Here is the input.
Amino acid sequence: MAESDVRYVITITRQFGSLGRPIAKKLAERLGIDYFDRELVDQAARALNMKASVIGELEESARPKFFSMKYPLGTGTTEMQNQIFETQRMLIMKIASRESCIIVGRCADYILREYSNAIHIYIYAPDEIRKEVCIHDFHYSPEGAQQMMEEVDRAREHYHKQFAGYLPDDPRHKHLCVDSSVLGVDGTVDLLEHYVREFLSHRLDHNLVKDGEADG
Here is the structure.
């Protein structure tokens, strides 16, 4: 079996302002695989027959620009959040069984924890660097940037802890944790591409590839 024949999934969790999303997109382009992020939210909402897609409404409404980043499952009842998570879980499992791809957020690292060819990555950056990104890329004031960082980080941590049972930056559940400020977007993509190819090569050399089937 050649490396190009191996089906694998990369999950990426990230701090707000660490440029994890553009890194994930460029890595997907570099590897020639699909990229899934907010599309999963919309698909889950459609699958649940939510009128006008409740989650889509949250992302596109007149609420603050990054409302959906702060509340990835919206602000509905716990029961509704559980339904959305379960639907997203099923979508993620279906995608992982179908094709190689990158999945950002949505507790994909937890959902695919027993997936044999999964690579779990966490992207972070120092607060001062993330604050600069919020100011220059997202056009926040210094005060607004600091507040947004704290709120989004807290919401993502709460979401991940609620459904996965551990924090998104827990190294025990990651293959690689990367400070994106060291190499920048392109350099981090270079690093991750090399890591992914070496990961797959190692699995092929040691006959560890199971074509993406879950272990156990």
